[in-house]
Amino acid sequence: MENSKIVKGGDGPNSYFKNSKLQGNASDLAKKLLVDGIAESLELPPKDYRAAGAAVFAIADFGCSVGPNTFSSVASVIEAVKHKYEKNSEAVPEFHVFFNDQVSNDFNTLFRSIPHDKQYTAAGVPGSFHGRLLPKFSINLMISNVALNWLSKIPESVTKRDTPQWNKGRVTYARSSPQVVEAFKARFVDDMRDFFGARSEELIPGGLLAILIPCRSQGTSPCESNVVLVADSMGDALADLVNQGIISEDVVDSFNFPTFIPTASEMEEIIVTNHGKHFSIEAMQEIHLPSHLNNPQGIQHTSNTMRAVMECLLNQHIGLPHVVDEAFRRYPEKIENLVKNKAPDNNTSAAQFEMWEFLFVLLKRNRCIVA
Fold first, then answer.
1. Whether 134 contacts 61, CB under 8 Å
2. What DSSP state is assigned to residue 44?
3. What is the distance between the alpha carbons of residues 365 and 185, in angstroms, rounded to a whole number?
4. How much is the average pLDDT of 235-243?
5. Helices and strands in the chain, H and E counts
6. Any idea where the domains of the chain sit in the sequence?
7. Distance in angstroms (rounded) separating the CA atoms of residues 64 and 107
């Protein structure tokens, strides 16, 4: 998805900037875990590492988007790190923040929105976080909030008619065959292997990587993810447009949202299996946020949030903004039907949709591995 614009830029009424309170609320709930993790687990660089001219504490946010959530997270990190230095009776260094997202991200809105009272210098780092972006052992602390669920690309097999993985008529894997689900999961596992591999090279020994990612409850199938089920409701809206002859069936058959939602154990397995020699898991905790999908206001808010992260992909695929507008006009009703009538094919009850689920993971870069 390197050249695809995921979230809607700018600061207009449908923008991610104006419609990312859900992600911001989840990040706020995770802040205590992050601050406590910095206090307990962050190892300050040795004094000989901080030679003259090198007294800089480097922070990177992978998948920063356009704000404002990234600025709040960075401010919390800096305050916690400052407290750590002061508690150790050491001089507080200067802070430098690297804001990363895809090359198509709206960095203009991001940098226009940086708070005037910021306590850091800033730089943009465009590029996919599934690969190397920064010099080796150059970053002290990394964060990534509600971004790693996005895949680097759609599994090729799910868009091909002649494969068992063809995801006909669906825009996610929520109501698809086990083969389709496995294709999305395999792509996610490969992407996470690449992500952690790149970060293990960029993070200094003793540094921290904090992740917040949408998750699903332990023991549930991939098709029981609230986020994916809600996103899949857009497929119902598009199906209406197909039935009315507004778009072709091929348009829907060839479109999939590039996302996968893991459980805590799936994330742990990926980390331990592929990068256990590089990282130790300092914390792993689920966070639950009320969804408010039991009332019209909550459903509309969810629709607005999902539009901010889906509209650009749909516009790029369909090429007709007025058709995409019509799909989103119908979308709240489809979400309401999902919650009221339970998701078809997997016996999901409406009670499942009471909470949004997120996973906070804190990793430390092991000191014994230096290359």
1. no
2. P
3. 26
4. 96
5. 9, 7
6. 21-365
7. 10
User: How far apart, in whole angstroms, are the C-alpha atoms of residue 365 and residue 356?
Assistant: 29
**In the block, which residue shows the tokens 């966070």?**
287
Smallest Cα–Cα separation from 168: which of 69, 272, 87, 251? Answer: 251
Residue 352 confidence (pLDDT): 77
The first and second tokens of residue 289, run together, are: 């946020």
**What phi and psi, each to the nearest 5 degrees, are found at residue 348?**
-80, 125
**Which residue, chain included where needed, has tokens 């090729």?**
156
Q: Does the CA dihedral 119-120-125-131 come out positive or negative?
A: negative
- Strands of the sheet containing 94-101, edge to edge, are 121-126, 94-101, 56-62, 139-145, 203-214, 355-365, 279-290
Model confidence at 356: pLDDT above 50: yes
| φ, ψ of residue 291 in degrees (nearest 5) | -90, -30
Integer-rounded Cα radius of gyration of the chain: 21
The token pair at 139 is 């970053």
CB–CB of 71/113 below 8 Å?
yes
Q: Strand 121-126 to strand 279-290: parallel, antiparallel, or no bridges (unpaired)?
A: unpaired
DSSP assignment of 194-238 = HHHHHHHHHEEEEEEEEEEEE---TT--GGG-HHHHHHHHHHHHH
Q: What does CATH list as the number for 21-365?
A: 3.40.50.150
Its sign, for the CA torsion 313, 314, 318, 319, is: negative
| Structural tokens at position 263 | 């459980």
From the number of C-beta atoms within 10 Å of its C-beta (0-12, 13-18, 19+), residue 293 rates as: buried
Distance CA 224, CA 347 (A): 9
Q: What are the tokens at 155?
A: 């599994």
Could you report the per-residue pLDDT of 338-347, keeping only the tens digit for each?
998 864 455 5
d(CA 304, CA 213): 20
**Per-residue pLDDT tens digits for 150-203:** 999 999 999 999 899 999 999 999 999 999 999 999 999 999 999 999 999 999
CA distance 132 to 202: 8
